[in-house]
Amino acid sequence: MRAEEEMMNLITGYAMNDNRIRAVYMNGSRTNPNAPKDLFQDFDIVYVVTETASFIRDESWILHFGD
């Protein structure tokens, strides 16, 4: 399992290196300081993109984040 900092670097690094991505934000329990933390919390990430067709057509981009 990856550490939180490693995941954040992976998420933001991917966004910075893909010119189709204009913004990235996170929602969910990780954004709530009152939510209890645990090892199994997921990362609810949204990429704001210039278009979606290329992401849908070729889903290999998701492999950047793991299996």
What would you note in describing this structure?
This protein is an alpha+beta fold. It has one domain (4-33, 43-65). Helices cover 27% and strands 19% of the residues. The protein is built from 2 helices and 2 strands, in the order αββα. A two-stranded antiparallel ribbon has the order 1-2. The longest helix is centred in the N-terminal third of the chain and has 13 residues, at 4-16. It is globular, with a radius of gyration of 13 Å. The termini are close together. The model has no long low-confidence stretch (mean pLDDT 94).
Structural class: alpha+beta
Uncertain runs are none
Give Rg in angstroms: 13 Å
Strand fraction: 15-25%
In N-to-C order, the SSE pattern is HEEH
Overall tally of domains:
1
Query: Could you describe the largest sheet, including whether it forms a barrel?
Result: 2 strands, antiparallel
Compute the number of strand runs: 2
Order of strands across the widest beta sheet? 1-2
Q: Note the overall shape.
A: globular
Count of helical regions:
2
Q: Give the fraction of residues assigned to helices.
A: 25-40%
What is the residue-mean pLDDT, rounded to a whole number?
Answer: 94
Distance between the termini: 12 Å
